[in-house]
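Components:
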Amino acid sequence: MLIAVTSTLVFFGTLGFLITRAPGWENFKAYFFDWEIYRESFPEVAEAFQLNVKIFLIAESIILVTALALAVLRSLPGPVFFPIRALAIVYTDLFRGIPTILLILMLGFGMPALGVEGIPLDPVFWAVVALVLVYTAYVSEVYRAGIESVHPSQDAAARSLGLTRFQSLRLVVVPQAIRRVIPPLLNDFIGLQKDTALVGTLGVVEVLRQSQIIEAARFNATAYVVAATLFVAITIPLARFTDWLVARDRKRRQAAGIPL
Amino acid sequence: MRTALFGLALTTLALALAATATGTSESQAQGARCAKAQLELKTPGRLTFGTDNPAFPPWWGGGETRKPWKVSNPYSGKGYESAVAYAVAKRLGFTRRQVDWIPVPFSQSFRPGPKRFDLYMAQVSYTKERDRTVDFSSSYYYVKQALVARRGTGLARARSIAAVRPYRLGAQLGTTSYQYIVNNIRPSQQPRAFDTNDLAVQALKNGQIDGIVVDLPTAFFVTAVQVEDGVIVGQFPNRAGREQFGMVFQTGSTLRRCVNRALNQLWLNGTMKSLQTRWLARVGGAPELR
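Structure:
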């Protein structure tokens, strides 16, 4: 314990010493860590952040459902379902391949430009659509991995009890699959939170764009650090919550004697 | 006594002569310091200008005739900014062939740090904050911000700033146009900030925003060429003194003084006025929105 404490102190102490002695440290500090500007810009940046939170909450709720549907469609067995499986594969390849920012620009500026009556013009709407399209592709692969990791004996046992394929999926396989893939699901959710910043390219003043506006006016990057702080602040509790969920699930399974 | 007076008069005369002589040689020295051979340039013997790509009329012209420049060609000498650039270059002793143009994004030009150009022109307005990180020449154009909307919309009928307030406005990120919206118009809907003017224009065409704020000559280009049903709703009054475009230099550039001398001469001998008449004539009046 004592060795751990000493080692930590020595390590971080040396690191801190080396960094603050580096030439240009003063400039770096003034450009990125100006406390005055941090305090001044915090309210504006935090207010813009609310839009990002709104976007990822809405997008994530939709994605969790659509991705599961896509994963199930992709795993439908038998030659009669081949066209559906093929479509699902094309979808995941296409939307994992297209860069998210490109899709946001294409939909955000392109769809309203069609001039068709009834197409929503709101850039936030199209940003959510683009994020849902892209993340459904990624998350459906995560679900698929989860479903395939559930031992086939589970499905066989369920079928032999008289459950239909769909019932077996719904009651036996998918609940187990989801529990297994909670960490990678959270990983994609965190990625989604960061990607909401891309809606700024459509002109919408969300957290990153607000930081850019402040940076362009003051020639100081501290506003970016404010935005980073806000993002990290929501990520850390989420990560710890997931750890807790996984640990709780493991404990329950071990207690009940269920093979992992 | 008379000798003393005579001596005094002679001394005074000598001093006066010396003073004028010093004055002449001082301005001669200044002129000599601005001699082409003594200028501190990125490439000795060549004047390197920077501007943004694409370069838009009426500031630039000549069509898309030189890679990688889009829409206009800064080398053409056509367009107000290009014409002023070559006029200044000529004053400094550079031929047209000794002038180079490099593309630099607008927002990069007035950031702190070393520059790849000797001087930069892309409708950059002087502001105190920008002046801390770069140096500006004296004015080569006095700016008014203007509002562009689409014909037949509610915003197009606005006659005052109060009437403009309820609408969704947009401008390019990091410009005095955007600052004008936030500080002076103060609309009730959050304005939008776009990476370039083109994206703002696209959003206007899509109906995603109701109006864009740009400088008055650019507004004429936007309504004449880019937005078919675009109209200039009006121009805005300057707050806190006249807004002016200046050429941008790296901080501490010794070229700036020489360029200011050249600009001063061009204003005094009427060149600037005739260039404005030639290139900005189609920029007419617009009602003032107060």
